[in-house]
Amino acid sequence: MIDLQVLTQAVGDLDEKAILTMVKDFVATNPSGEDAQKVVFACQQGMAIVGDLFEKNEYYVGDLIFAGELLSQTIDLLKPVLSSVVTQKVGSIVIGTVEGDLHDIGKNIFGSMAEAAGFEVYDLGIDVSPGAFVEKVKEVKPQIIGMSGVLTLAIDPMKNTVKALNEAGLRDSVKIIIGGNPVNADACKQIGADAFTTNAAEGLKTCQGWVK
Amino acid sequence: MMDAVAMTNERNQMFRDLFSGKTPQRVPISNPATQDFAIQYAGLDLAECQWDLTKLEQVYNKFCQDFFTDTYPGGSIRIPSHYQILGSTCIVMSSSGFMQHPEVVGLLAEEYDQFIASPYDCLVETILPRLYTELNGSPAKVAMALAKAMRAKSDDLAYLGTIQAKMNAKYGYATMVRALTEAPFDFLADFLRSFKGISGDVRRCPDKVAAACEAVLPLMIKKGTLPNSSMLGATFIPLHMAPYLRDKDFATLYWPTFKKLVETLVGMGQKVELFVEQDWMRYLDYLYELPENTIMRFEYGDAKLVKEKLGKKHIISGFYPVTLLQTGSKQQCVDKAKELLDILAPGGKYWWQADKSIINLDVNGPVVENLRAVLDYVHENGSY
Questions:
Q1: Full residue range of the structural domain in which residue A185 is found
Q2: What confidence tens digit (pLDDT) does each residue in B256-314 have?
Q3: Complex ipTM, two decimals?
Q4: Which of A189, B9, B324, B344 has the fewest CB atoms within 10 Å, i.e. is most exposed?
Q5: Is there a single domain that holds both residue A34 and residue A139?
Q6: Of A103, A152, A189, which has the smallest distance from its Cβ to B360's Cβ?
Q7: What are phi and psi of A147, to 5 degrees?
Q8: Both A57 and A151 in a single domain?
Q9: Global confidence as pTM
């Protein structure tokens, strides 16, 4: 069996070669689904280290993006041996970049970190209309909605999306977090969201607090 | 009331003073709202007006009349016609009608060596056809697409230029020229490798990233060269990736070729205006090193610290938070303008601009009133 502590540290260090070698060697041993689950958990803990280093300004956004890429490579390697295991999700989140905005870097970072933390993440993509958010919420009944936007225009469509959720009678069934360059406490209040963040690691902690 | 020509002369003098480090008669002002805002302010459809430019003259007339500014308020305009003709994937229109730059990959990781060996050839042969769908296919078809696109672009630019000349003649704006270029690392990230791609490259193959920045530097210099270096104006360089890098990656990969770019342009007798996007507070000592009187428009950070560290050497701008115009009361907005004026204006070397452009308008929102109040406040209270 793989040394899980070493793997966790390698993920924290973003040591791509070490991670991929360890995980490939592990998969080659034809492991049980339960053991594969432990490996996923070790990677998740490594991502938590990455989040901590980000908050301490040792890592920056570029490192979070790279971490997300490493994690998805790892999960892809593990998929064949994980398929037999039913995983328990900690909660579900619908995310999307709001109408009029095509930027998805921040949303993708948050999405991969939320997935790493055990959330079921439904990503609606970019330029998502209020109606598309409403439809997805009706369909999957998430606990949380994450709206992302970079342009200064993003605040208005965020407001419109909350309004649409209100009109559909869905607003009280979800927590809403907004993220991206133009958001702040005042914008959050005006939009009618429950929380805001310009920092994916911090935003994830907020979401974890909501589903405890 | 001064006539428009005299106003243009006075404003040109203000900017000449500012750019040469002398204290101008008052703080020069540029309206942060752009053509996109102006179209919505006129109650017209954003997408439609960018295709049918004939509606824009009335749009600008109203916009220029209602908002004070010393420079023509167009913003960076991306004309949809030629992008669409070329099948652009790197600049596209969103559902709101705003032209923007999504994440694209023009160069694959395994093509670094090809790019480093001959960046221009690689751009023409490999990267452009990947970013512009209509640049694929038979040479005749590609040539036709390119010819149509360039014709559309020059027609549209000429039309917009006529409007600008009319507004300058009517409202007496400063007549400044502008070139645009990017830091080599940003160009590599924005159009070649993508944000995601470059983030992996700085860890996987930093030597190739550095070599690619060096290789593309001459093209970035050429792109940023003004028609005539003695013209009043500046080369605009919007900075992008530095805040997302670790200090050591910034020092070795971003800074060296960016510094050379600025030094070369300044060495040619040009002014350089940086849009210091996001938060650069950890790089202030680097920015200090740039040639004297480099214009720096900041988005976020500590205005006091910037004035203290850079304000004697460089020209500071930006910082005014446009989000406040959307969320604050008129008094709060004016108070913020006063606060920044008190910090940044003393001693000159301050150009009033906001932290970013205003590109949209919620007609029921407070932005119009607040923006007007702020522009008027700075105009009336910015005298030296």
A1: 91-211
A2: 999 999 999 999 999 999 999 999 999 999 999 999 999 999 999 999 999 999 999 99
A3: 0.90
A4: A189
A5: no
A6: A152
A7: -110, 135
A8: no
A9: 0.94
